[in-house]
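Researcher: Here's a chain I'd like modeled. Treat it as a single chain, no partners, no ligands.
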Amino acid sequence: MHVATNEPSRLIAGAMSGTSADGVDVAIVRIVGSGMTMRATIVHHLAHAFDASLKQKIFAIRGSGTVALRDLAELAHDLSLAYATAINAALRAAHLSADALTAIAAHGQTLFHAPPLTIQWLDPALLAARVGCPVVSDFRRADCAAGGQGAPLVPFADYIVFRDAAKHRVLLNIGGIANLSSIPAGGAIDDVIAFDTGPGNCISDHLCRQLDPTGPGYDANGARAMAGQVDARLVESVMAADYFRQPPPKSTDVPTMIDLFERARATAGTPLPAADLLATACAITAASILTAFRAAVGDAPAEWVVSGGGANNGAIMRALGQRVPTLLRSEDLGVDAAAKEALAFALLGAATLDGEPGNLPSVTGASRRVVGGTVTPRPG
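Model: Modeled as a single isolated chain. Structure tokens:
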């Protein structure tokens, strides 16, 4: 979106590490206005990969559900340093100093999410110290305290950035978990329907880690999946789970979706070749997205706008494209697909600083709109 240069503006660095736990995306965002009138432009986007040991720690904790206290504290330290490294690198690349930032809006790393219980792990004081500016973090808890799911949070930004007076738009983000926001043409923010549809890349990434523990941990561009055959029975077995029949508001997490897949796989009988497993994982992702949309919204025509790592997966995009007449990437509307969630947290951070609610009760199920996030001041 274009921002008029003669209006007062502020820079906020949105920082997001998703459920795929592959690294931190930073979007330095220029924001004009407040509330529903905010307009945003991405000044610079940078993707910073986690090192292998940090990724391993995250997956070990999320997979087992248990952790020693010292390891938990060390993880907050290491995550925060990774966030700081990414943000400082983005500032250098944009030829900016930390003094130029109003704040960092940092989501933190999801370690556990089963509403009303949720953990997005980060040490905001350490991050503030290493970058040198205030930090807004811990965005989910206020919504959970108001009886909501604490997720998804991105629909607030989806509405601000992508709403259209004439077009019904569906904003689909495919990260570790896939979530969508349905925004009716000319609709108000309370008309938005949004929820986690189920697995995004998480089953495919899980299989890649199993098949090649020392590899990259993902199927680049979905190339291996594109070469495989879908096992329809395994897709049906996974899709029989209760989650996919639940109406919104609803949210889920990576370990839950991987567990559904593994339990269905254990009863499937004959082992599948690697390419077929990956093709089936992508088919599950597409099926869960399309089933969820039909159940919640119906068959209304809409312009679908895809972002997140899954937008690069040819197998997922092919499966969606067979059923969705208008399938775009967020770049087609001027927003880098890899930067969209970091942009969203920059807008959520701005709302927090302004004392504006950033949750949508129609989406999360909260009893009321609340101001989310906590603010850690600039170090003295």
